[in-house]
Specification:
Largest sheet: 2 strands, antiparallel
Distance between the termini: 39 Å
Low-confidence stretches: 374-380
Shape: globular
Strand content: under 5%
Order of helices and strands: HHHHHHHHHHHHHHHEEHHH
Strand order of the largest sheet: 1-2
Length: 380
């Protein structure tokens, strides 16, 4: 059923061009270089696993095949979440997984040439393998996760700490880590070679401006990804979430959810960039809700609150300078949701080749920062 639902929400979208992500053009260029037996990362430090997938699939089936592969990774994530919740001894894994899928940011990321969904898929199934007592397989999946998104090291660390909290699990965690670390390093050898055997590829764009600036962007983007309906639901759920912390010593899913949410949110505060960077936070959040013992009726409300954000949003601010770290103007409005807007943007730009100076990125962010007015480039 989860596979069918994932197919129903992704198939109508994935054929509409490569997508709206800012880095798609660079990923396609990296894939082309791989086919020429050369390599340079799409951006530091590279996403070699996803770049290789694109290199193989793009000349065969173009954006349809590449996006279909991403959608399959999303489907694997959704099924993996349901099984992981069950493996950790909790009920309602189906609704926890459906709550994750219902987020429009997840659907948007899972229907285009992007990397976060791949990393989340490998993380979910790696965690499931580790819980089921297969640490070597888990380590290999964790390595693929790090090769899909190096910043996933943050949530991986939270997972390993959460599981290793139980003394009997520490040997398995150690084996998984010992397998994952060297395998992930091997995946980044081509990046190292492309930088003349130096570690220059570790130099990345600094997302820090100042505490007030970063905090403002952090809060605004968290709100935009959650949506007003989910914020209200979380306020209601807060007492239960706090009470669930009493099970810290006996519930690894709770530990992972809390540690993962804190770790990924701290990382996002440091680099408050794309909404898709909050996918790991969404995963941790729905797992915490699942671990808090709420009823199925309440979890259905969570699913609905997630989905509403794709249809309609309440936007309190508009950016005064969309491509800067300046500020915003208080102009509250109710406008098209993330998913509705995404379909509109893809229909408008699907025939254009992905490039940095396209208006696609500015268009897809309109539910968060207001009308694009021709703005292009990265939202800082």
């Amino acid at each position: 059923m989860l596979l069918a639902i994932t197919g129903a929400v992704t198939l109508p979208i994935l054929w509409m061009g490569y997508g709206t992500d800012l880095d798609i053009g660079a990923v396609l260029a990296a894939g082309e270089r791989i086919r020429e037996l050369d390599y340079a990362p799409s951006r530091n430090p590279g996403v070699p696993v996803v770049e290789t997938v694109v290199a193989v699939l793009d000349p065969v089936g173009g954006h349809v095949l590449v996006n279909l592969a991403t959608a399959l990774a999303l489907a694997a994530t959704v099924v993996g979440i349901a099984r992981l919740v069950r493996a950790w001894g909790h009920a309602d894994g189906d609704l926890v997984a459906l709550a994750f899928l219902a987020s429009p940011i997840v659907i948007i990321s899972g229907t285009q040439t992007a990397d976060f969904v791949w990393a989340t898929a490998f993380l979910t199934w790696g965690a499931l393998a580790l819980v089921r007592g297969r640490p070597v397989a888990a380590g290999l999946l964790f390595a693929l996760m790090l090769g899909s998104r190096s910043s996933s090291l943050v949530i991986l660390t939270a997972l390993l700490v959460a599981i290793a909290w139980d003394r009997p699990e520490r040997r398995r965690v150690a084996i998984a880590a010992l397998v994952a670390a060297p395998t992930a390093l091997l995946l980044y050898v081509p990046v190292w070679l492309s930088y003349d055997r130096s570690f220059g590829f570790l130099d990345a764009t600094d997302g820090w401006v100042s505490l007030p600036n970063n905090l403002a962007r952090f809060l605004l983007k968290n709100y935009a990804v959650a949506g007003a309906a989910l914020v209200v639901v979380l306020v209601v759920a807060t007492p239960g979430l706090v009470r669930s912390l009493r099970c810290w010593g006996t519930d690894p899913m709770l530990r992972f959810a809390v540690l993962g949410l804190l770790a990924t949110e701290v990382l996002f505060l440091r680099m408050p960039w794309k909404p898709a960077h909050l996918l790991p936070c969404l995963l941790a959040l729905v797992l915490w809700l699942g671990a808090s013992g709420r009823s199925r009726r309440f979890l259905w409300v969570v699913v609905a609150a997630m989905a509403v954000n794709g249809l309609v949003v309440f936007r309190p601010f508009v950016a005064d300078e969309p491509n800067s770290t300046g500020g915003g103007d208080f102009e509250p409005a109710i406008t098209a949701g993330w998913l509705v807007n995404e379909v509109r943007c893809r229909a408008e730009f699907m025939d254009e080749p992905p490039r940095l100076d396209s208006g696609t990125w500015a268009c897809t962010l309109e539910p968060m920062r207001g009308p694009a007015d021709g703005a292009t480039g990265e939202l800082a």
